[in-house]
Amino acid sequence: MNKKNLLTYQGLQNLETELQDLKVVRRKEVAQKIKEAREQGDLSENAEYDAAKDEQRDIETRIEEIEKILKNAEVVVEEEVDLETISVGCQVRILDCEYDEELEYKIVGSTEANSLKGKISNESPVGQALLGAKVGDTVTVETQAGALTYKVLEIQRSN
């Protein structure tokens, strides 16, 4: 049984746009590169041909990956997210109790997670610990570096 891929509406749109670009634009570009490399003659020592074939393989792999994600996608309607408790689709502001530092995260499905953009997965240790918490709750996250404690300051809809 395939697990459901939780996506926000924005995440769904981003994947659909990337898939369209890969199928329509990138496939043609790489096919042209392969054609041009073939015209240069001997393929056994043709670096451009090898690079284009590698690129083609990568594109096809990514297309397959996105199609699999979309096939099992479950879209979280962010406007319907309950703001009483933390769930996928929420924007949360938490206090790192050890460093007295405020952090802000958007809780998303694992396919959308990007810590550099403040998007953490509902399956990550911090994401799992925060799910179901309410404003004022303190949660503890067990990590390899030891236990981390966070206090939930605010839950809101993501922008």
Question: Can you describe this structure?
Answer:
This protein has 159 residues and is α/β, with parallel strands linked by helices. The protein is built from three helices and seven strands, in the order E-H-H-E-E-E-E-H-E-E. The protein has a five-stranded mixed beta sheet. Helix 1 packs antiparallel against helix 2. The longest helix is centred in the first third of the chain and has 30 residues. It is elongated. It starts with a strand and ends with a strand. 20% of the residues are buried.
The dominant shape is elongated
Mean pLDDT: 90
Tell me the series of helices and strands, N- to C-terminal: EHHEEEEHEE
Biggest sheet details: 5 strands, mixed
Classification by helices and strands = alpha/beta
How many H/I helical runs? 3
Helical content, roughly? 25-40%
Properties at a glance:
28% strand; two-stranded parallel sheet; elongated; alpha/beta; 7 strands; five-stranded mixed β-sheet; 159 residues
